[in-house]
Amino acid sequence: MTLFTIDFFELVFLAEACIPPQPIARGAFFECLSEEHYHKMSEAERLSMFKFITKNGSFDLNNEDCRHFYARFNPRNQFLLSCFHEGKGQELIAYRFNEEYHTSKRRLVNSDYIKSVIKLKND
Questions:
Q1: Backbone region of residue 23 per phi and psi (left: phi > 0; alpha: psi in -120 to 50; beta: other values)
Q2: CB 93 within 8 A of CB 80
Q3: By CB neighbour count within 10 A (0-12 exposed, 13-18 middle, 19+ buried), where does 5 fall?
Q4: What is the DSSP string of the chain?
Q5: Are 72 and 97 in contact (CB under 8 A)?
Q6: Alpha-carbon dihedral 30, 26, 63, 33, rounded to 10 degrees
Q7: Are 59 and 88 in contact (CB under 8 A)?
Q8: Is 19 left (phi over 0), alpha (psi -120 to 50) or beta?
Q9: How far apart are CA 4 and CA 29, in angstroms?
Q10: Which residue among 14, 20, 55, 74 is buried most deeply as judged by most CB within 10 Å?
Q11: pLDDT one digit per residue (tens) for the chain, 123 residues
């Protein structure tokens, strides 16, 4: 498959066209924003994306995909978790979604392994 390069502002306009509820292909792209593209963005780009999309009239926090986007991109919802599992300690960057700490939409951190939580200051 051929990869295409677009700049950040083109990505924002594409994201706006895919705000749920939309047909499945657009919905899949909207999820990719949180699962893949989030990690490719700078903090400033994440904040710009968050502000732009959440101010759009189509963005609705009654929609679970919109709530997930909000949780993932919200700079005030980022945490550093100190975890201990199977004899190993590790630190994870996570966000709160549905009262649990997540590293992605389908991957959450078992609360039994969390030893401490520090809110990151990303305003």
A1: beta
A2: yes
A3: exposed
A4: -------HHHHHHHHHHTPSS--HHHHHHHHHHHHTGGGGS-HHHHHHHHHHHHTSTT--TTSHHHHHHHHHH-GGGEEEEEEEETTEEEEEEEEEETTEEEEETTEE--GGGEEEEEE----
A5: yes
A6: 0
A7: no
A8: beta
A9: 14
A10: 20
A11: 788 889 999 999 999 999 998 888 888 899 999 999 999 999 999 999 999 999 999 999 999 999 999 999 999 999 999 999 878 899 999 999 999 999 999 999 999 999 999 999 865
Structure tokens, 32: 């990719």
Check if the beta carbon of residue 120 is closer than 8 Å to that of residue 81.
no
Type of residue at 21: P
Name residue, tokens 């300690």: 89
